[in-house]
Amino acid sequence: MPPRVRFAPSPTGYLHVGGARTALFNWLYARRHGGTFILRIEDTDMERSSTDMVTAIFDSMTWLGLDWDEGPRVGGPHGPYFQTERLDKYRAAADALVASAHAYRCFCKPDDLKAERAAAEAAGQTWNYDRRCTRLAPDDIARRVAARESHAVRFLVPAGITAFDDLVHGRIEFDNANIEDFVIIRSDTYPTYHLSVVVDDVEMQITEVVRGDDHISNTPKQVLLYVAMGAAVPKFAHVPLIMGPDKKRLSKRHGATSVGEYETQGYLPEAMVNFLALLGWNPGGDQEVFSRQELIDRFTLEGISGGNAVFNPDKLDWFNQQHIMRLPADDVLRRIRPDLEALGWWSDDLLSTRADWIARVLALIKPRAKNLSEIAPQMRAFLSDNLVFDDAAVKKHLSDPSVPAHLQAWIAVLETTPSFDAASLEAALRALAEARGIKPGVLIHATRVAVTGQGNSPGLFEVLELVGRDRVIARMHLPA
Ligand code: GLU
User: Fold this and answer.
1) Contact between residue 226 and residue 198 where contact means Cβ atoms under 8 Å apart
2) What is residue 441's predicted lDDT score, i.e. its pLDDT?
3) For residues 153 and 184, what is the distance between their CA atoms, to the nearest angstrom?
4) 180 C-beta neighbours (distance < 10 Å), count
5) Contact status, residue 131 vs residue 181, Cβ threshold 8 Å
6) Pocket test for ligand 1, best of 201, 208, 215 (most atoms within 8 A of CB)
7) Closest by alpha carbon to 211, among 229, 190, 234?
C-alpha cells in the first residue's frame, strides 16, 4: 500500500526552517512512493493560533512547491483538516476510551494539582498524579457527569514497557512506570495534543509519522493510545533537530528562521528545497546540487542521520548561486520582472525582439548572483543610461592625466572596428595598448568604469558587445 504521511503544523508562528524541512521530508517520501501527503492544521491551542499564520504556512509551502493531496483548500476524504473543526471526534474517542476502561474521568481541580506538584518539586521530589479519581464510585462519577461538573479525562497507563522501532534512531523503549496518567481531554473539554494527533492519524490512515526529534518523548504515550484504540501503530521517523553554526538550537539569533523571509531575500525555492533536504538527510555520494525530481528519486527515510544537522547560511547562499546558474534565462527574467519594473527598466520587447539579447545579458550576470534580488540592480549598464559611478573606481582608473589621450585613441578604434563582438574588441584593445606602450589593464579598467560606472563587472568585452557600439562610444566621452 502506498504510504500516507502528513505534516501537522500548529499555526502559532510562521513556517520556520525546521517545520519546512519536516514538511519536505514527508513530501519527498510521499512523492517517491506514489503516496499521499496530507496537511493538517493543529489549531486547538486557540489562544496562540491565528488565521494569519495559517495563511502564511500555506503560502510558504506553496512557494516551496510542497503541494498537498489532502488538506485545507483541496479537501479529501478525511476532512475537515483543521483540528478545531474535529473536536467531536476527539470527545467521542475519549468517551470510548473511558467506556473500555483505558481512561477515566478526573474531577481534581487543575489548580490543586498544580499546587501539589509545585510543593513536591520544591521539596526536590518528582510528582505524578496518584490516580485518586480511579477510586471514585461509579454512581458518584455518573452523578457528577450528569451535573456537568467540569472534569478532565486521563489515560490509564498500564504497567509494562512501551517500545517502537524508530526508522532513524532504531529501537526506543520507555518504562511505563515513568509515564503519568496523562490528560487526553482537559477540563475545558478541549483535547490535548496526544489525543487529537492519534485520533487524526488513525482516521487519516497515516502509515509513517515523520516529525522532529522533540516529539520522541511524546511517542510512547501516543503508542499507548493507538494500542488502546485497537488501531495499527504507524512507523515513526524522528528527524534530528537543526542547530545553528554554534551548535545551539536554531533560533532568531542565527538570522532569518522563517521561510517567508528567505523568499523576500531573493532565495530560490529550488535552492531552499535542496538545502533543507540535505539538513539531516544524506543522499550518499558526492553530489550536492539536486533538482526536485532528483531528490524525489533518491529520498529514503533510512538516509536520515541520527545526529543533529547544522544550518550553515553560507552553504544556503552557495546552493542559491548554483540553482540561479542553472535557471534558464527566460525563467530568471520572469522571476525578476517585478524588480525591473520597480527600477523602471522593464519593457515588453525584452520578451520578444530583445529576448535573445537579454538572455545573453543574464548569462553574464547570473553566475555572479548569490540571490535573485541581486540580479536586477546589476543590469543597470545594459538597461539604463543613467549610470551610478563608484567614486573610488573613478579615482583609481580615470583620474590619471594620461587617461584621456588613451581613451581618445580607443574611441577612434571603437568607431571604426569592423565587427563589435567580444573577441574582435579584445584583440583591438590589446593591439592598441601595445602600440601605445601601456598595459591592456589601463584601457580595460578605464573602459569598464566609463561604461558601467563600476570597478567590477562581468567580462568587459562581453559587456561592450552587449551594451552596443553607440552607447559604448557615448559613455566613453567622459564629462570634462
Ligand atoms: N502540531 C505538532 C507540532 O507542530 C505536530 C506534531 C506531530 O507531527 O505529531 O509540533
Assistant:
1) yes
2) 97
3) 6
4) 16
5) yes
6) 215
7) 234
Mean pLDDT of 320-324: 96
Which domains are present in the chain?
1-72+240-326 (3.40.50.620), 87-239 (3.40.50.620), 329-378 (no CATH), 385-480 (1.10.10.350)
Contact 363, 396 (CB under 8 A): no
Tens of pLDDT along 292-309? Answer: 999 999 999 999 998 889
* CB of 53 shorter than 6 A to ligand 1: no
Establish whether residue 38 lines the binding site of ligand 1, counting it when its CB lies within 6 angstroms of any ligand atom.
no
- The neighbouring-strand residues paired with 104 are 154
Here the cell at position 90 is 476527539
Phi, then psi, of 285 in degrees rounded to 5: 85, -175
The residue among 92, 46, 48 whose CA lies nearest residue 185 is: 92
Query: Using one digit for the tens of pLDDT, what is the confidence trace for 200-252?
Result: 999 999 999 999 999 999 999 999 999 999 999 999 999 999 999 898 888 88
Residue 156, Ramachandran bin (φ over 0: left; ψ between -120 and 50: alpha; else beta): beta
Q: Residue 264: CA atoms inside 13 Å, Cβ hemisphere, count?
A: 5
What strands, in cross-sheet order, belong to the sheet with 235-239?
Answer: 170-175, 161-166, 235-239, 208-212
In this predicted structure, the answer to whether residue 480 has a pLDDT above a threshold of 70 is no
pLDDT at residue 479 is higher than 70: no
- Residues 222, 235: Cα–Cα separation, whole Å: 12
Which grid coordinates belong to 437? 606602450
Q: What is the CA radius of gyration of the chain?
A: 32
By CB atoms closer than 10 A (0-12, 13-18, 19+), residue 103 is: buried
**Would the CB of 211 count as within 6 Å of ligand 1?**
yes
Q: Which of 14, 27, 197, 200 to mutate to test the pocket of ligand 1 (most atoms within 8 A of CB)?
A: 197
Does residue 439 have an active-site annotation?
no
CA distance 4 to 27: 10
- Please write down the HEC assignment for all residues of 345-397: CCCHHHHCCCHHHHHHHHHHHHHHCCCHHHCHHHHHHHHCCCCCCCHHHHHHH
Residues across the chain: 480
Nearest to 23 by CA among 12, 3, 34, 37: 37
